[in-house]
TrEMBL record:
Family: Belongs to the CPA3 antiporters (TC 2.A.63) subunit C family.
Major subcellular site: membrane
Record's signal peptide: none
Gene3D superfamilies recorded: 1.10.287.3510
Keywords: Cell membrane, Membrane, Transmembrane, Transmembrane helix
Lineage of source species: Bacteria, Pseudomonadati, Pseudomonadota, Betaproteobacteria, Burkholderiales
Name of the protein: Na+/H+ antiporter subunit C
Membrane topology: Multi-pass membrane protein
Bilayer-crossing regions: 26-45, 77-99
Subcellular location: Cell membrane
Length: 121
């Protein structure tokens, strides 16, 4: 399970870096979203008991009140907060993308189309 999770985090991070280096704004935003998903998986997996099986999520009578018998709620809370912040960030970047495209007439990162860059000496 840990190998699959590490592989998923690596593939998401690699894809995100590749998209972040692309010249179009939409690809950049998709790269940021993938990077946010990779960070969320990383935060959730770094919880010592985040992937625990057969652990109680809520305090039960008769079970000692320590993290050996319960799931750790901190990674889950951090991941949920990061998802909400990432969604708001993506919405803001999409609004900026639409405004930038309206002003510049292109969604290229530096404001030029591919044809304009080929014509320059």
């Amino acid at each position: 399970m840990e190998v699959i999770l590490a592989l998923a985090i690596g593939v998401l991070t690699g894809s995100a870096v590749w998209l972040l280096l692309r010249p179009r704004t939409f690809q950049f935003i998709m790269g940021l979203s993938l990077l946010a998903y990779a960070v969320n998986l990383f935060i959730f997996s770094m919880g010592r008991l985040g992937l625990a099986i057969d652990k109680e999520p809520v305090i039960q009578p008769g079970v000692p009140q320590d993290l050996l018998h319960y799931a750790d709620p901190m990674p889950q809370a951090l991941t949920l907060t990061a998802i909400v912040i990432g969604f708001a960030m993506t919405a803001l970047f999409l609004v900026l993308l639409l405004a930038s495209r309206g002003v510049a007439g292109s969604d290229h990162v530096d404001g030029r189309d591919a044809q304009d860059t080929q014509e320059m000496p």
